[in-house]
Amino acid sequence: MLTRSCSRACPRLSQEAFRTQSIRTPFRSFSQWHPRPNLHSSRTSKSAILHHQQLRHKTFRTAARDLYKEYPLSVSLASVCILTACLGFIYASYVYQSYILGEFTAYPEPVARHLRRALFYSNHDVQPENAVKYYMKALDLATEMGMDPLSDEILGVKFQLASFLEKQVHQPKLAIEVLERVKQHCEAWVEEFGGLERQREKRTRVLGQMVRVGVKLGDLYVAPEVMEMEHAEESLVSAVTTLLKEQERRAREGVKESEGDWIGAEEIGGALE
After folding, report:
1. DSSP tag of 199
2. Of 36, 165, 202, 253, which sits with the fewest C-beta atoms within 10 Å of its C-beta?
3. Where are the alpha helices (DSSP H) in 96-194?
């Protein structure tokens, strides 16, 4: 009762006291919300981080040492496996650079790209249609880029195509078509350019390829799928005739400058069998 009466009697006093109490309520200053940076504590945190990294590195070495002591055989085996994998990767890179890419250094890169695909489809993922397609693309592109069609590189591609058609596709007739074109091209070149002095070395090489192609055609014509004995005899006679004529000419006139070596005695014996 006394309290109610006092509050009724002095309403202004109670409101003034509440307002005064509210004003005197302490607030945090700007410095309390945003303290100044402590440079000493920053340096201390950096040293603590560095100490933590060193301790973690030391802990890793200790853990590795303890792991080896507890499982010496497993750790040694794992190390050997990792080392073997690294050496295998290095060896694979060497083989790829030396043998896969190195075999095609004589070709322009666009031609080499088609040849790599042709070899992939003929030796690994065997797809005869794709292999023949990329062989033909490589040969056409080589002609467009001005490569000599009777060079060892281009003739090698044609021989590889003929071998693929014979042995993997089992189509000796298609192989015969490829080699007959090679033979005709060689004969036409010898007839037109074989007498030129500057072409002596190439003449020797082209005549040698004519002999080898003729002997191979003789084998293909007697295959069970072909059995064309007359063509076989014609090809073998042509090869032996070319061989003996060049050998007799060299014996009569002597080997001229830059002509190069002729077919060896062992290969001659194989052609005459």
Report:
1. G
2. 36
3. 109-123, 128-144, 152-167, 172-193
pTM: 0.65
CA 234 to chain centre: 43
In whole angstroms, how far apart are CA 183 and each of 190, 210, 224?
11, 6, 23
CA 247 – CA 259 distance, rounded (Å): 13
Residues in Cβ contact with 3 at an 8 Å cutoff, skipping those fewer than 6 apart: none
| Buried b / exposed e along 125-161 (16+ C-beta atoms within 10 A) | eeebeebbebbebbbebbeeeebeebeeebbebbbbb
CA distance to 160, 260, 264, per residue, from 202 (Å): 21, 9, 17
- The interaxial angle of helices 11-23 and 2-9, nearest 10 deg, is 80
Separation CA 178–CA 68 (nearest Å):
65
Question: Are 187 and 150 within 8 A, CB to CB?
Answer: no
Q: Which two tokens stand for residue 86?
A: 């690294």
At 79-121, the pLDDT tens digits run 778 878 777 767 555 544 554 555 678 889 999 999 999 999 9
Sign of CA dihedral 151, 152, 157, 160: positive
